[in-house]
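Field reference: sequence -> structure
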Amino acid sequence: MTKPVAREPMRRNSRSNRARILATARQELGRNPDVTLEELARAAGVVRRTLFGHFPGRAALLEALAEEAAETIRGTVAAGTTTEPAERALAHFVFSLWPVGDRYRMLLALARRDLGAERVAEVLAPARERATAILERGQRDGVFHSHLPPAVLSAGLEAMTVALLEEVNTGALVEDDGSRAAVATLIAAGVPEKRASAVVDEVAATAVPAATPPTTAGA
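Structure field:
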């Protein structure tokens, strides 16, 4: 029996359409959280039927974005080092995850309303665990303040990062490579400002770009 020659090109086209829809959704939802699926289809250059073939509703689309974000976070956290001094580890952590947060910052406005707090916690769990571990080590080493438990301090730093990303979303904060966010995080953790700036400058020269979002899953 001969193999159908059109099958694999159709699959590649389906994967391409799905990836394009998700990329468009990241952009358009950042501009307008209430954008309709029909508007997203037009922006992605696909017909309505194609979009609904991949994502039968808004919930399915947002869940796909959440899973994409979760996979990217898992890959970014797994690629991080755990052996360097805590202040450098925290700076590296911010540098590696800032582009991920920037890419998915539209989820910040949608997450709890559309996905629910439990799903958001699942997506962020690897990052939260790594941040807490770094802070706990830094407190033991005396480089971070210790008047808050590591998990509580981690939650506070996360809230600050979310606030910074929201300011990027509104245009009040000009986007950067994460340097200012990293300095602010170190200062909030208890590192003196001059030392925080020096550490971030050192780390910036060796920071590894965050993992790119997957583009082939779920054809």
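Note: Confidence is low (pLDDT under 50) at residues 215-219.
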